[in-house]
Every structure is written in C-alpha cells, then in structure tokens.
Specification:
Structural class: alpha+beta
Strand order of the largest sheet: 9-10-11-12
Largest sheet: 4 strands, mixed
Distance between the termini: 68 Å
Strand content: 15-25%
Order of helices and strands: EHHEEHEHEEEEHHHHHEEEHEHH
Number of domains: 3
C-alpha cells in the first residue's frame, strides 16, 4: 500500500525553493517529485493544492529568479497591477538593462533595454516596472490594439494618466519606442469597460472612422435611457458589443426594451458579436460607415475606412 506524499505544514499553501526545503530537512528530492508539489521554475515549487496564477508566478520570479537590476515588465507587470488577464502558463515578461548577462531561464521572457531612475518600483517585495514604463513596454512589445487594451485599464484605474504618459514618451524622444507609446496613448480611453470594447473602438478608429465617445449616456427629458458602449452623439449612431449575457432571458428582455427606447429616440444601434469582430470586421466597418453617412457625417472624415 503506497504512502501519502509528505506535506510538511511549513510548506502547505506556499511557494518555496526546493533546495532550501531539502537542506532544511523538510523534504527529500524524491518528495519534490511527488504529486504533493508542483514545479513552477527550476528549483521553485508550489503546494499542488495552491491555485497557481500568472501573478503568483510573477511573485516567485521577483523573489528568486529576477536577474540583477531587472523587473517584472509588460503584460506581466500589468497583471501584477490587476490590469491584465494573463494565463498562468504564459512566460513571465522581464526587462533587464543592456549589458547584463542573463542565461536562459525556462518560463521567463527576458528583454533588454535602457532602464531609467524611477522605472522600477517595489511592489510587496517584487520589482516591477512603473505604470509609465509598463505602458512604454506594452507599446513597444505588443500589437498596437493589444497595447491599448491594457493601457485603457491602467487609465481607468487611475494608475496612470494620459498627460503623464505623453510626457514620459516625449522626455525620451528619439529612443526606440517613444513614437509607439505616443500612438498608443493617443488611442487609449479610460472609458472602456472591457477588452472587447477597447478592441472594437481602436479597430474602428484605425479603419478611418471618427473617434467615438465611450459610455455615452442617453436621457429623455432628464430621465436615464441607456449608456452606450461607443457613440457618435452628433449623429445618433452607436455601437454595442454583444457579450454572452444576451443569452439570459430576463437580461435579453430588458435589453430589447432599452433598444426600442433608443430607436424611438432616433438612434441607430449597430451590434457587434465576437464572431464578427474576429471574422468579419471589415463588413461591420462598412455598416458603421453607412449609418454615419445616412446621418450626415461628411466624407472624407472616414473615406479611407474599409
């Protein structure tokens, strides 16, 4: 009859260095290979009953594996700030100064670049890039749309503000990445309430349409009617991103009543689903163009869209 794996109380619910556990006599090398423990990185283990998230893995990297003068960066930094959802098994982004020699560490994505004073903060013992530097790296490392998705959240949670971010970029004019950061910040909007709303807004603007207002409130004689995801209020045209909640019967009922009030108030409401965002966004752009033209929006303000 096989015995249960050893689970010393001192290690339950914790992340630890395997070598420390062995030298202290809490575990043996064979114990570390049992089902009681999960390997996160080389010589870094977690209680197998502990739900491991990307943020927990970032904390482990920051405590034991961060290279000299480096910091958790990019989307991983945004995850530590609570502003990005990153899968637990995705590599942890780390930035180190140029010239620092770093060996390959499985599970880390190490990038090099200049690090200025103030670029690294201590967050509960974990070195992490400042919100401003995080936005810089996002703009430099990610697709423009995906960078704006995360910057929107940093702005919405007031961890950064657009004027400070522009100043940060302009102070580094000429350095690789400064124009990318300015472009991302100019497209960002603290009013976005979901990643898909952000993606929709940015892609509409990049397609050449006028920039919409976010979370536009519609009222009728002082009474609240609706709050619209994206709107061009001068033309009473709006875009709503449809999530899975529309499958809920009661929510569907109230949403349709809301839609009727908007339509009778003269609004054109265009609905975008995840499938169309993914597979037919060009067709959706054409529909928004047509609606704006029907309401008097004059080309060439968006004649280059498509």
């Amino acid at each position: 009859m096989s015995r249960s794996p050893r689970r010393p109380p001192q290690l339950r619910g914790r992340i630890f260095r395997g070598s420390h556990a062995v030298t202290s006599g809490l575990l043996t090398r064979n114990d570390l290979r049992s089902s009681a423990w999960r390997s996160l990185f080389r010589d870094v283990y977690a209680d197998a009953q502990l739900p491991v998230t990307h943020r927990i893995r970032c904390t482990a990297v920051g405590r034991w594996l961060i290279p000299s003068a480096g910091a958790i960066a990019g989307r991983s930094a945004a995850a530590l700030y609570g502003c990005a959802e990153v899968a637990a098994d995705e590599p942890v982004d780390v930035v180190v100064p140029r010239g620092v020699r770093v060996g390959v560490i499985a599970g880390l994505r190490i990038r090099r670049g200049p690090i200025d004073p103030g670029d690294i903060l201590d967050r509960a013992g974990t070195p992490v890039t400042s919100p401003e530097r995080t936005c810089w790296d996002l703009a430099l490392w990610l697709d423009l749309v995906e960078a704006v998705v995360v910057i929107d959240v940093l702005l919405a949670r007031r961890l950064a503000d657009a004027s400070t971010l522009r100043g940060y970029a302009l102070a580094r004019a000429g350095r690789r990445g400064w124009r990318a950061m300015l472009r991302a910040v100019d497209l960002a909007d603290a009013g976005a309430e979901s990643p898909q709303e952000s993606r929709t807004r940015v892609r509409l603007v990049l397609a050449g349409l006028p920039r919409p207002r976010t979370q536009w409130v519609v009222s009728d004689r002082g009474r609240f009617v609706a709050r619209l995801d994206l709107a061009w209020p001068d033309y009473r045209v709006a875009v709503e991103y449809d999530g899975l909640w529309h499958a809920e019967p009661e929510r569907f009922h109230s949403d349709r009543r809301r839609l009727n009030r908007l339509v009778t108030g003269g609004w054109i409401i265009l609905h975008l689903t995840a499938k169309r965002l993914r597979a037919d966004f060009e067709g959706f752009v054409a529909e928004v163009q047509a609606a704006l033209r029907a309401r008097g929006a004059v080309p060439p303000s968006f004649s280059g869209a498509g």
